[in-house]
Amino acid sequence: MEMEAVRRYLEKGGGEDDKNASTIDGMPTRFFERFIMDGLKIDLIEPGRLVCSFKVPQRLLNAGNFLHGGVTATLVDLVGSAVIFTVGAPSTGVSVDINVSYLDAAYANDEVEIEAKTLRVGKAVGVVSVELRNKKTKKIIAQGRHTKYLQVASRL
Hints:
single chain; alpha+beta; Thiol Ester Dehydrase, Chain A; six-stranded antiparallel sheet; 4 helices; globular
């Protein structure tokens, strides 16, 4: 692929020629989280554990017509962050490390279950695991681990 083709692919027209620019600029703040998490339902919440589910919508599919890897990573990030609150942490901090192993695919209208567990939440660091499964078949779609630096109060 030539360099300009790569640029066009990433920018989708970009700059002044971008017909979507005004639409994108007019989107509400934190649109990305809502775009990914719209339709997410909490099935279980308890200290150190969070289980939720959603039906894979068409908008979250990649060119191969299965759940986009970036969406999966974002769910590991967002649901993994949320489970930190279940153990009483006042904030979820900032990501230090996140990894995702992609093991299977999820397709449009598949029911996906996401289970997040705290592995450790201390004064400065929180570590969680997140697993995405096909709710019907129980096949693991992805496993993730997320490490977050939790805000430490200033000592001044």
